[in-house]
Amino acid sequence: MPHSVITCAITDRRQYGADWPEQRSGLLTQAARLAAEGIDYVQLREKDLSAQDLIGLTREILNAIRESRSRMRLLLNARADVALAAGAAGVHLPSGQDQLTVGRVRTLFEAAECADPTVSVSCHSLREVERARENSADLILFGPVFEKVVDGKIVVPGLGLNALRAACETAGDTPVLALGGMNAENRATTIAAGAAGIAAIRLFR
Fold first, then answer.
1. Which helix (H) or strand (E) holds 33?
2. Cis peptide before 144 (omega within 30 of 0)
3. Percentage helix, strand, coil for the chain under 3-state DSSP, each rounded to 5
4. H or E element, residue 41
5. Would the pTM count as exceeding 0.85?
6. Using one digit for the tens of pLDDT, what is the confidence trace for 21-68?
7. What is the 3-state secondary structure (H, E, C) of 120-166?
8. Domains, the chain, ranges and CATH?
9. In whole angstroms, what is the distance from residue 77 CA to residue 87 CA?
10. Contact (CB, 8 A) for 95 and 120
11. Can you tell me whether residue 91 is helix, strand or coil?
C-alpha cells in the first residue's frame, strides 16, 4: 500500500475471545503490531467498557505505541473524557452525534491545556460530509462503501463507489477514508475513487 494512503484500524475486542483478560491481551498485541506496521490511526471502539477499564486500556495501548516509537495516533470513539484522562490523541465522533461536536471536542482539549486533538467523524450521507467539512473535522470516515455479506446474504447494503466519489468531492480538502466492507482486493478501487485512505476492522485484525 502506498505510504501516502491514510490507514485507520478500528478495534473490536470480541474477536480475541469471550473474557476480558483475553480481549485486553489481544487488543494490546494488535496495537503493538499495527504500530510496527506503520498504521496511522487506531480508533478504540469499545463503547460498552466501563470508564475505568477504558482509561486503563487506553493507557496501556499508548504505552505499546510509545515503546514501538511509532507515530500512530489513538482516537477514542465518542469519549472525549477518556481521551483527556488517558492522554489519547483525539476523538472519533459517530454519525448523528449531536451532543459532542468537533468544536466541543476542541474546546474541551483547549480547556484542559492539551494539544489540539485529531477529530474524525463518521458520515453516511453527503449532508453529513458537508457538515463535517464545515465543522473542520480532521478526517471523515465515509461508508459503508461496500456491502456486508453474511452466509451469502447481504446484511448491510453498500453505498457504492459513486457515492464515495461524491463524498470526496463534497469534503474538499478534508481527507475521506473509505469504510465498510474493505478488503485487500477492493482498497485500491476506493483510492482510485478519490479516498485519501481506508478505515476497517477486519482488514487490520
1. helix 20-37
2. yes
3. 40, 20, 40
4. strand 41-44
5. yes
6. 999 999 999 999 999 999 999 999 998 999 999 999 999 999 999 999
7. EEEECCHHHHHHHHHCCCCEEEECCCCCEEECCEEEECCCCHHHHHH
8. 6-204 (3.20.20.70)
9. 14
10. no
11. strand
